[in-house]
């Protein structure tokens, strides 16, 4: 058994699991309910871990993880609001230049 991946990000975790499922890579998830009873801890605090049951998949699986994490982090960055350095205006992620003063991001 080898630990492949851990994340507190439920969406990232879900993406990893469905990709491993799709490739029929054998894995198990630990700490799925580490938060204990509902209400005891915020569910975000329970870090989930994906473990490979068969280590021989490790090279392939880690490439899969890399791709998912890279994609997920890039998506997150591009969807964030940003603040203009010139005038301090808040801009939505869709804008590449400040809608107020036209300064670049
Ligand atoms: Zn501005």
Automatic annotation (TrEMBL):
RanBP2-type domain: from which residue to which, for each copy? 78-105
Record protein name field? RanBP2-type domain-containing protein
Q: What keywords appear on the UniProt entry?
A: Metal-binding, Zinc, Zinc-finger
Origin organism is Alteromonas macleodii (Pseudoalteromonas macleodii)
* Keyword Zinc-finger part of the UniProt annotation: yes
Please give the Gene Ontology molecular function terms for this protein. zinc ion binding
